[in-house]
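Reading a protein record of the kind used here takes only a little practice. To see the layout at work, look at the sequence and tokens printed below.
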Amino acid sequence: MIILVLNCGSSSLKYQLLDMRSAEDFTLMKKGLVERIGDVVPDHAAGIQMVLDALVSPEEGVISSLSDIEAVGHRVAHGGEFFDRSVRVTPDVMDKIAQCCALAPLHNPANLMGIQAVEKLMPGIPQVAVFDTSFHQTMPDYAYMYAVPWRFYEQYRLRRYGFHGTSHKFVAEKACKFVGLDIKNSRIITCHLGNGSSVTAIKNGVSVDTSMGFTPVEGVVMGTRVGNVDAGAVTFIQEKEGLDWQGVNNLLNKKSGLLGISGVSADNRDIEAAAATGNERAELARKMLAYSIKKYVGAYAAVLGGVDLIVFTGGIGENAWPVREQVCEGLGFLGVEFDSQANAVRGKDVVISRPGSKVKVVAVTTNEELVIATDTMNIVRNK
């Protein structure tokens, strides 16, 4: 089954075309990126038309006709409390995605425009929505609720939702197969670490807690996002700097994190390079990143009643072996026997704990597009 996977952002869209025979047997036919939507490219419909044209281009195309595409899968940022799994797109689903735009104002409108554009350009083709939040809908209420007045939950559905769900689900399953664990009988901590980062506690295959909250700004230190911060400190800064809500939002989302601490960059590779030259603020940012992740690992080990498997993934998790080592340093009390020599690799699936370690530790590559394609294939085939 040939499936087009679309990830529509506010000003860009990423795509992959995959020939799916099964979740394990597939061919990546083509992938690419369309940027500057709303500027050089008028809108998402024009961007998707560019993608379709490229796929059937006589020079660089990989299919002879658009009719070769049998389904389209979309990454959708926020499903609210409506969706605990991927679903086939219907008018009702589109309406619920629209209702969630208030919860993800930068992403859901773009995701919805992508669905609408496909509906217009390829009428009748099956479409599937795969939500970043759905995997975390298994969290218990005492984990997802905030201790603010109850009416905010009733009126605005203010609660923890969590994100990166497709990645956390994928790498937990992949890592269990990699080390020979039964995901249905395992306690797993997954660390998706990139420009945006989150840590998730997974018990017997379901998410029971995750570090990101109502928005992706909560949790560990990130590239430009602040992570956990005292709300009183935020109101203090707001008063002292005379910021409106947009100014506060911009500060917490775009000017904080590794960038805010180091003054160097939001990219961990730049942070490591600067720290190696003796830049003290870059070194501090590096330590804060690893420390914030380690705190969640410890907390989630307590939540799970122990841990069988710790997983690192994402751009930092897959490549920044010094961060992995810093996080795992001192976790012997949990049963982690870390293998520094095995850890010194980038971008590979690798076990980085010693053979006799009670807790397995691995770094594995994620593939969110494959999750979307697999869910799309199964739903369209009514599996």
About this structure: The two ends are 14 Å apart (CA to CA). The chain has a mean pLDDT of 96.
